[in-house]
Amino acid sequence: MGREDFSETTYMLEISDPMMAHVARAGQFVIVVLHERGERVPLTIADFDRERGTITLVIQAVGKTTRQMQQECRVGTRLFGMAGPLGKPASIGGVRKVICVGGGLGVAPVFPQVRAFKNAGAYVIGVIGFRNKDLVFWEEKFRRYCDEMIICSDDGSVGIKGLVTKGLEMSMDKHADTDRVVAIGPPIMMRACTETTRPRKIETIVSLNPIMVDGTGMCGGCRVRIGDDVRMACVDGPEFDAHTVDFDDLMSRVGRFKEQERQALERWTNNGCNLRTDCNRQSS
After folding, report:
1. Per DSSP, which regions of 51-202 are E strands?
2. What is the pLDDT of residues 24-75, one digit of tens each?
3. Domain 97-207 is found in CATH 3.80.10.10
4. Residue 170 burial (CB < 10 Å; 0-12/13-18/19+)?
5. What fold is seen in the domain 2-88+258-275?
6. CA 163 – CA 230 distance, rounded (Å)
7. Of the candidates 25, 71, 206, 209, which lies 20 to 30 Å from 246 by C-alpha distance?
């Protein structure tokens, strides 16, 4: 396992799993279990290397398990389990020009799509956004595959000052022949991108992140409203036509267990989290 810390809360884990790396495709996700009694955490695949046999995850330490992983998962440690790749791969073919938008942690999962579109022959415009320059990561990886790229920052410390929707509007103004927009990030950011493209009637795809448990469609926890239908994000998605997504319902579901998550984090912190070594068992 390899690791890199991008900020105080954002970190990258590179996990050795040759079989998974061989079949992984852009747009898919995995479910990670830190230890035997740990929760199942869905994480979008941020990169994969078939030759090296690795899967890369970029994680933000916001809840109990992601903070525990941040503390315990180091080079040479082993996860209890990782299931995947799950979900339908992104549809890449037949697109001549695409704008790929990533906001915050959504920058990581949009990268495989940038690379896949470029390798398929598309003209790729990347728009990535961060709060400030200190949080920027993978800029060179994006520039390697983007024909054009715009960096946005909330405070203007890097790139243009403003949200990713500003970069998206600039790109659409310049490229009226855009075939598709792909937007990945927090629900509020994906909703804003959706409303930005709607008047121009540009096909827009978002990757939804509701609460998931089993990843097979059995638990029903990840159900989302798509037009008049109810779909399961884990098996029918995670990507959907943005202009048909009920974002009000999505954001309501995402925040449904915030109090339980807060309590779990508080219990873990109060039980001496700094002394835990569950992830430091056996070298991978």
Report:
1. 54-60, 81-86, 97-103, 123-130, 148-153, 160-161, 180-184
2. 999 999 999 888 887 888 889 999 999 999 999 998 887 778 888 888 888 8
3. no
4. middle
5. Elongation Factor Tu (Ef-tu); domain 3 (2.40.30)
6. 30
7. 25
